[in-house]
């Protein structure tokens, strides 16, 4: 068996010294890798420098930084290898910085807008066009000056990496992850089922951030048919995922 695991969280670059990231530790990914590891399983493990990593040296580590880097790495791995399963637990940034503006730059843009649309209403289409133009402005500084009291970032939406997986390997068993914050089980379940359909996943591990900690991790492994199993620790969740994939691979 050969499996691909992603874990940790991407970091989106603002300039050469700053970035937007998340708090994903990668501990669940490590637990999953440990549950799967044996002499008959090959594991490709995609993660980041800051995330925790499996200690077993026989696991193939692939380090990435941002969402663009992750996309290129997955395309390469999925094109070169056949995977029985892909477990996509990485917390991928929904947005990435397009450009930044100091207070002075922002005021210049606003003044231009006021002049251009003086006497006319600025509708949503016009505003969207103006924002797209701002997105095209490159961040030329290696380190953005800290002289401004406020820095304004324009973020643009990242592509959904999980949708790439089934496009490149339709037959692989795909386990996706969905994290919400302080919601009911019904809402979490509904969002997870929608994610299964949208991303052609075989399973979604649904969890709520308020029930995730170092010692506790309540998660629901939801299948395409709507059935689910429950784990209360990272180790339990890892074993649930392993059992589900082993069973599905025999069908």
Automatic annotation (TrEMBL):
One of its GO terms (molecular function) is catalytic activity. InterPro entries: CoaB-like_sf, CoaB_strep, DNA/pantothenate-metab_flavo_C. Residues 2-100, 139-246 form the DNA/pantothenate metabolism flavoprotein C-terminal domain. One of its GO terms (biological process) is coenzyme A biosynthetic process. Signal peptide: none annotated. It holds the Pfam family DFP. This is DNA/pantothenate metabolism flavoprotein.
């Amino acid at each position: 068996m050969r499996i691909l695991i992603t874990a940790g969280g991407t970091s989106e670059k603002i300039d050469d010294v700053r970035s937007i990231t998340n708090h994903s530790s990668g501990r669940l990914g490590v637990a999953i890798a440990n549950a799967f590891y044996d002499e008959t399983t090959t594991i490709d493990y995609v993660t980041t420098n800051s995330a925790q990593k499996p200690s077993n040296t026989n696991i193939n580590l692939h380090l990435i930084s941002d969402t663009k880097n992750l996309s290129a790495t997955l395309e390469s791995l999925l094109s070169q290898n056949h995977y029985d399963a892909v477990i996509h637990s990485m917390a991928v940034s929904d947005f990435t910085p397009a450009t930044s503006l100091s207070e002075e730059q922002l005021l210049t843009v606003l003044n231009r807008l006021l002049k251009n649309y003086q006497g006319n209403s600025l509708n949503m289409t016009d505003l969207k066009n103006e924002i797209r133009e701002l997105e095209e402005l490159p961040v030329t500084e290696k380190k953005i000056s800290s002289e401004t009291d406020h820095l304004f970032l324009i973020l643009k939406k990242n592509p959904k990496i999980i949708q790439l997986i089934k496009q490149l390997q339709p037959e692989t068993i795909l386990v996706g992850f969905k994290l919400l914050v302080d919601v009911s089980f019904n809402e979490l379940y509904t969002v997870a089922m929608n994610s299964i359909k949208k991303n052609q996943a075989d399973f979604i591990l649904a969890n709520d951030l308020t029930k995730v900690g170092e010692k506790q991790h309540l998660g629901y492994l939801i299948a395409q048919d709507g059935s689910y199993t429950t784990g209360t620790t990272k180790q339990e969740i890892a074993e649930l995922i392993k059992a589900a994939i082993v069973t599905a691979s025999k069908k």
